[in-house]
Amino acid sequence: MITLAISKGRMQDDALALLASAGVRLSSESLASRRLAIEDEEKAYRFIFVKPADVPVYVEHGIADCGVVGRDVLMESGADLLLPLDLGIARCRLVVAATNPNALTSGFGMLRVATKYVNVATTHFGGRGVPVEIIPLSGSVELAPALGLADVIVDLVETGRTLRENGLVVVEDIAESTGCLVVNRASYQLKATAVSKLTKALNQAASRIVTL
Ligand code: PRP
Fold first, then answer.
1. Measured in angstroms, how far is the CA atom of residue 156 from the centroid of ligand 1?
2. Which of 61, 104, 139, 207 has the most crowded Cβ, counting Cβ within 10 A?
3. pLDDT at site 41
């Protein structure tokens, strides 16, 4: 049996739909339950549902053989994982946003950056030689500029609605993010047949979605 860690939240529905399209059958009773670990009907897969940032942790430690997680989370985590497949689901962007459209050019001294993506933000601004003070937050990051905690935020944008409704605009793009399949290095060797079967099935399902 292969264990797959699935990101809870925005990725979960897309990941389950893709798995269904790849032929993985989950009972409606399992899907409706609040259980955080379920098996498919053929008992070929066990799924564990964890916070996005924990997916790379479970996979790197081999508790899960594979994971479905956003590229944004992988960029932040730096975990040592194999990344055989971009699934093309849950497409969104990592951006710098601010209330002031000129926030990146108008200030003096340190730029205060509020974010959940501390490593991404440090690398992004460090690479441009912009001096920053990173202010780590764990959610509702869009509040920080309006309340004076930060000059800009680094966060995920999907529809743009959260930014708009909190008076923020995108001032810089950092990267696009989509859901990816990641695999533990040892599982890739030791469970090669099963991992390859899953990868091929997901690849076919993902390309069907792209061509629809
Ligand atoms: C993300 C992100 C934004 C929001 C953007 O939060 O941090 O707050 O989604 O989506 P939108 O562009 O469609 O409005 P998420 O819902 O993943 O939860 P979080 O608050 O835990 O970060």
1. 6
2. 104
3. 94
